[in-house]
Amino acid sequence: MNIEGRKVVVKKSVAQLHELLKSPAQYENLMPDGLQSFSSNENGFKFQLKGMPEIALNIKEVSEEQVILASGSSSMDFELTGKMQAIDAESTEVQLFFEGKFNPFIKMMVEKPLNNFIENLTSKLENL
Fold this sequence. Notes:
The protein is an alpha+beta fold and 128 residues long.
């Protein structure tokens, strides 16, 4: 299952975004409304939204071009990638991509909530 978020312009440089996104604790500020719990360590973070199970994400890569978050659970195989491209010294274009390997039943259950989650993350990034 693949989900492609919309492209947005973030009023931060690529270097500023890189600094922000390499710190797991900073992801709490990007979480959608309805956040019930959030905890982080040096490798990643866990969060729970209202009506959803707890999700663990590990920071797999943070570079000037992208950030990749991978599932922290062996039962769920997915990655969330944010592609970043500098527009100028103070603005960056960002687009989120979700790629997950789910059976058809799970896909049917999670597709709408994941689309909403990607849209909420995109909006939070756009308003940084």
